Amino acid sequence: MRFKRSIPNMFTLGNLYCGFLSIGFAADGQYKNAAILILIGMMLDSMDGRAARMLKAETPLGKELDSLADIVTFGVAPSFLVYYTYFYQFELLGFAVAGLFPLFGAYRLARFNVSTSTTSKDYFVGVPITAAGGIVALLTLFGETIPSIITTVVFTALCFLMVSRLRIPSLKEVPLPKYGTIVTLFLGATLFVIYKGTYAEFPYLIYIATPLYIAYVTYRFIRGKNKKNID
């Protein structure tokens, strides 16, 4: 029983470790590696909650651990990534602006944690930090083709959208992990086409994580479909 309860936390800790590694890669100048690790963190983040519900292992510890992991992987790591790739040229001002992302993200997470019992499950209030961090990672991953001004504007907008009162559909009725599915399909289609022949530029983990996650998505889809047929 104790081991079963720890399984979702393993996914969460994996998410947190991806955030730590992303910061390290960004500091070392390996920006694509850093961005991909954030995306892998999104996959793990979408799996831990579902694993907890499947195993009936939801705990207050898991909830708090998930928030701590999210602020590192989708708050701190993207802010360092943007600083090292775009905002470094503004020196101290750029560092200060980059630091706004985890500040707004932390507030967004805290507000969500204390209001889950009073808000609808059909929508999120404000852009979730997971989605915001993933968008920043994608912009950085393809930064060679996206003007820096667009990344700067999107980054700044996401800071305020996270703490806004804008209602974002949660799509929880869709029988697939919402963030990780999009990321997996996007990466699977683009990595082979755009970065063919540059295997060494990416963490080897992506070539393990992606097929495993696709298998997980397939299982969730089939399981959800069979459940509806039984009902």
TrEMBL record:
| Transmembrane regions listed in the UniProt entry | 92-110, 122-142, 148-167, 179-198, 204-222
**GO function terms (MF aspect):** CDP-diacylglycerol-serine O-phosphatidyltransferase activity
EC number(s)? 2.7.8.8
Q: Which InterPro entries match?
A: CDP-alcohol_PTase-I, CDP-diaglyc--ser_O-PTrfase, CDP-OH_P_trans, CDP-OH_PTrfase_TM_dom, CDP_ALCOHOL_P_TRANSF_CS
A GO term (biological process) for this protein? phospholipid biosynthetic process
Instruction: Please give, as recorded in its UniProt entry, the membrane topology of this protein.
Output: Multi-pass membrane protein
Instruction: From the UniProt record, list the reaction(s) this protein catalyses.
Output: a CDP-1,2-diacyl-sn-glycerol + L-serine = a 1,2-diacyl-sn-glycero-3-phospho-L-serine + CMP + H(+)
Give UniProt keywords alphabetically.
Lipid biosynthesis, Lipid metabolism, Membrane, Phospholipid biosynthesis, Phospholipid metabolism, Transferase, Transmembrane, Transmembrane helix
Which is an annotated Pfam family here?
CDP-OH_P_transf
What subcellular compartments does it reside in? Endomembrane system
Principal subcellular localisation of the protein? membrane
Q: Name one GO cellular component term.
A: endomembrane system
The family assignment reads: Belongs to the CDP-alcohol phosphatidyltransferase class-I family.
Q: What is this protein called?
A: CDP-diacylglycerol--serine O-phosphatidyltransferase
Which organism is this entry from?
Answer: Anaerobacillus arseniciselenatis
Upper lineage is: Bacteria, Bacillati, Bacillota, Bacilli, Bacillales
